[in-house]
Structure formats: C-alpha cells, structure tokens
Amino acid sequence: MDFELMLKVYPFFLEAAWTTILLSVLTAILGLTCGTLGAAARLSRFAALRFLGAAYVSLFRGTPALIQLFILYFGGPQIGIQLDAFEAGVIGLGINAGAYMTETIRGGVISIDRGQREAARTLGLSSWQATYKIILPQAARLMVRPLGVNLNMLIKATALVAAISVIELTYTAQRYIGSTYKPFEMFLLAGVLYMIIIYVVGRGVAWLDRKVQIN
Amino acid sequence: MGLDFSIIPKYLDVVLLGAAWTMGITVASAILSFFGGIVFAVVALYAPWIIRQPFRLIEWVFMGTPLLLQLFLIYFGLVQIGIDLPAFIAGIIGLGLHFAVYNSELIQTAILAVDKGQMEAARTLGLSRGEALRKVVIPQAVRAVIPPIGNNMIALLKDSALVSVIGVSELTLSAQRVIGKTYRPFEFYILAAAFYYVINLCMEWVQRKIERRIAISR
What we know:
With 215 residues, chain A is mostly helical.
C-alpha cells in the first residue's frame, strides 16, 4: 500500500465524488419524473398509453444502460441532439432509471386495495381526486423501500458515464490507475467514497421509511 | 449527417461475432456466479467466524461499489500482482464474482427457509453435516431461488457490456470498432441494442419455461 501516493491524490477523488453526487441527484430527479409518468402511462385507461409505457419499460430495461448512453452521446448528433458528456450522462441514466422506477411505482399503486378507490368514488370523489387523495398517499408509503433499492442501483450506475469521459469517481480512479499503476490504492480511494455515499443514502431511505410508516 | 441503415449488412458479421462473444461471456460468468454464490452462501452461514468475516467484507465491498470499478481493479490488479490474464478471463471473473455475491444473498435466504427438519432427518439417517447440506438442503434451496437468480442472470447479460471498457471484443466493443471505421454510431449502437434485446427476450422466455416446470413439479 502506497499511502503517500493516496494522500497526494485523494483531493482529486473528493472533487470527483462531488460530481458523482451531483450526477446521482440529477439522475434521481429525472428518473423519478420518468418513473411517475411511465407508471401513469402503464396504468392509464387508454390502450395506446399503456402500450407506450410497456414499450418504454421493456426497451430500456432490456438493453444495457451503457449502450443507451452511447446511442445518446455518440449517436445523438446524427439526429440533431448535441449534448455534452455530463448532460448526456444525466439524461441517459435518468431515462434508464425511470424505466426501473416505473415498475416500482406501478407496483406500489396496484398493491392498494381496489376497495379504496371504489369507496372514494362512492363518497363522491372524482377519479382524479381518488387517485391523488386516497391511492397515492397510501402507495407512496409502500414505495419508499423499493425506490431506495432503485436509488442504490442508480448511484452505482453513475460509474458508467466514465465511459463517455465524465470526470467522476470511476473515471478518476481509472485515470490514476493508468498513470500510477496502483490499482488497489485507487480502488480503495474510490470504493470507500462510493460506500460512504451509498451508506448515507441508505440510512436516509431507512429513516424516511420509518417516518412514513403508520405504526 | 443523417441516418443510413443500409450500411449494416456489410459489417453484420463483425457484430454477430461480438454477439456470440457476449453470449459466451454471459454463460461462463453465469455458471461462475451460480456456484460462487452457493460457496459464498455456505461460507456466510456455516464457516467459522475467522473465515466468515473476510468473506463478509468482500460481499460488502462488491455490493457497495460499481461493477465497472471492480472490473478495473480485477483487470489491472491481477496484472500488478503478476497474473497477466487475457481481458475476457478477467471480465468473466469480475462479472462472475460480482453476481456471485448477489446470488449468495438469495441462496442464503433460501437455505434458511428450508425446513430444519430436513437437516435433522438427514443427520439422523447417518449423513454427515456436509453431506446433508450438499445432498439434501442445498438442492431444495437452489430450486427455490431459480426464478430470482434468473433475474440476476438477465442483469448479468446487460452488465456484460461493461467488459468492453477493459478491451474485451464482445458486442459493445465490436459495435465500437465498426463505428471507428464507418463513423455511424447511431446505426451500429442501435443494432447492438437490438441484439441485446433479442438475447434478453430469449433469456426471459427460458426463465418462464423453467419457472413453469418448477411450479408443476411442486
């Protein structure tokens, strides 16, 4: 173990960790948005929307996220989409995470007893009101933990943007492995930072989960 | 630059060969991850404390860091300690170990879910603890986890794209090579995605078949 080297380069890893965190936050926001829209489409009354939602989930979960990133970043300019690497990373990963979150959110919604909607409708609430005032508040409670799993996967998936040269943790580790030939030291630096991020987020999710439970 | 899919047939053979490599790597890593998962699970549940702890550390590290980073560690780390393996072997080891950890979680739960009476009965009939595990408990546990392990294997197929980054000429890197010659990223990445999607659908189909068979024989 070359601790001297580790001390010398760790500021760069810290800086890269901030990029990883920023990427994760933006991706999570976009992922949740896409996931909510996707779930709404999959549960829609219109067959065309249901089909679109199902196709979204199937295509984006059925192909590697890395390929999706490459299509967006390298193929995008051919169809008039010019993005820098960071933007492509956030959008690509966000849409990908959204496909997984669609299923999580949909799962939460359909696990609420049908009688809840029927009762709400009987009491005079519109379909819209029943969804927003009765179904979603109950479903949200069930979604916290599985969305936490999605979030954990998403944080690790941000490493993929190293392949399109976004300077985040994995890219930084890769670059220093290349220039110092010290893979274990660099892995240790990046790995510890990832585990800290994932640990903190995991605790946050557990806290939120406890907070939203009724008992 | 617009789109021109008519260029695809000319390079189809390169991409097809890449797809064959992807399938080979997926199958090899899947086998490694399956047996590795059983070993990890048995160690986690039955090994003495002193052996269990390092395994738990490995498990924790593998679940808490990105696969891509692990692949860099294994590929370059092995070189550093003097083991110069071809990239595809390093890729298979990396994917196999990564998913072995996830499979181990499933198998541990399943082993604990096998009725205690099974072990007791096997021991009463004169089997040693190891034999009872190997011949009675683990076969039942493994059967219960085949559907969720199938999900892990489908995830493995998609994650096998990552080994392109350490230079394994599988589907993704083959597409990249063709793009290097043709400057047609959109067309060939879409083609690669289509191949992944088809392999993925085939795996889902096999998974459903196996699940149905298990459901019937229960």
